[in-house]
Predict the structure.
Amino acid sequence: MIQSLEQSVYEENETRIRLYDFSTGKQTFFQWQAGMLPSLAGKRVLELGCGSGGFWQSLLPRWSNCALTLTDISQDILSSAQQKLEPLSNLAASLEFATLDFNELAKVAGPFDVVIANHNLFYAQEIDGLLASVTRLLTSDGLLICSTVGQDHLHELATLLRLKQQDLTWGAETWANCFGLENGGGILQRHFQQVDQFEYDNSLHVNSAEPVMDYLLKTMKSSLAEWVTEHYDEIHAAISDAMVVRGYLRLTPHSGFFIARKNG
């Protein structure tokens, strides 16, 4: 049975969240990001790829009375977000949910004061075209908030896998080459007058091989997932062995976000 794109996105999102349950930080990425952002109460906000709504659990109490339009390609994810945010909906001036593939953003009407795109711009079919559509939707003083990863994201896991296959393609490197912490600022500067970058300091102490295997199979996907499936028992054993000394596998996320202002 062929898995739908929407189901694939839903599983990817949930699997990534489970891996981050092993975070050693005092704040989740979304809590940290929300705390770093300026207060934007009363603004018109469009989110591209809202996920299951975790970001807004941290942000709605700070950004009260906003008119929110939250979108995602997956209807299952939108339903989850709607359920999660229902108790906080009174904090928003309005709260709308819509199914949207952001590669078709040219069809969306604005204006918006803020556009948010967390951990997904590296999926854009044509990044400059997408960013041009974002700037079209923004007011003259509008801003884009977007997060991504660096090339060395979870590098310990990549190193472990490359002991078996040296030329293994690592998804985070592919994502970061498209739109990452190393090149994202330069890409954004082609469309925005001012770009600021912020990076998240955190580590994961994972004490079970299963969430790591799920992450490899459902978040990395494509050829890596096929390779992991083919060598599942061997990779599972290698990850388990790496946990023996400390009782956990230490993984280092390299994540952060940009604030890009249309007119500095």
Notes: Residues 19 and 212 are 7 Å apart (CA to CA). The chain is about 40% helix and 20% strand. The radius of gyration is 19 Å.
